[in-house]
């Protein structure tokens, strides 16, 4: 048999431990309150309090160092894709848009813009992807998309100089929505300039005639209805970054 020793705590020692525990608890509460008040006094930087923005920028730098084209989003069989695809936001989707006049504005540099039709884009090799589209609001859906990989598009239009820059910027035709994408993610093999959803042309509310699908990012980066595409070594403006969200928004 194993001997079990019992340790008895005197009432005095128990009271002492209880007092210490409550003291530590209240000190922690006070520290949290003071830290919260200090945080609220800090200036804003790009929509977020400065200390929080520093943390977000650090996260981008850290995770960007480990990004790889071998980091692929999980794909699914066709029968896993939902039929009713949820619309993640309507920013940049103005009602006065005329699809018949649309052309992609490919901005190589200031004063050098090439206009590209949807038919020209559809003439490139088609790529389809079925993946779990994740929204930063917390919901996700397995969805089916078709288009041309940005890497193939860049090769076709001779964008080697442009893609040597750090970022790509995309803007809706009405300029109401805009994103900045790090070039490594833009050139990822699963990133597509998308013109189909569930094997059919994109609905207007999901970005017709052309949108970005970038499975390694949250939905806020999947800009609907691309009007202009440009390149920069500086971070392009980003709609939700200006509202205090993470610029990188990677998965």
Order of helices and strands: HEEHEEHEEHEEHEEEE
Range of strand content: 15-25%
Helicity level: 10-25%
- The CATH architecture of the domain at 71-85 and 101-243 can be given as Alpha-Beta Complex
Main sheet properties = 5 strands, mixed
**Strand order within the widest beta sheet:** 4-3-12-7-8
Radius of gyration, CA atoms, in whole angstroms:
25 Å
In short:
The chain has helices at 11-40, 50-64, 118-122, 150-156, 183-186, and strands at residues 44-45, 48-49, 104-109, 112-116, 127-134, 140-149, 167-171, 178-182, 192-197, 200-201, 211-213, 228-232.
Describe the structure.
The protein has a domain of 158 residues: Alpha-Beta Complex (Sulfite Oxidase, Chain A, domain 2). Helices cover 24% and strands 24% of the residues. It contains five helices and twelve strands. The radius of gyration is 25 Å and the shape is elongated. The protein starts with 10 loop residues before the first helix and ends in a 19-residue tail after the last strand. The model has no long low-confidence stretch (mean pLDDT 89).
Features:
five-stranded antiparallel sheet; Sulfite Oxidase, Chain A, domain 2; alpha+beta; 251 residues; elongated
Topology summary:
Blueprint: H1 11-40, E1 44-45, E2 48-49, H2 50-64, E3 104-109, E4 112-116, H3 118-122, E5 127-134, E6 140-149, H4 150-156, E7 167-171, E8 178-182, H5 183-186, E9 192-197, E10 200-201, E11 211-213, E12 228-232
Parallel strand pairs: 3-12
Antiparallel strand pairs: 1-2, 3-4, 5-6, 6-9, 7-8, 7-12, 9-10, 9-11
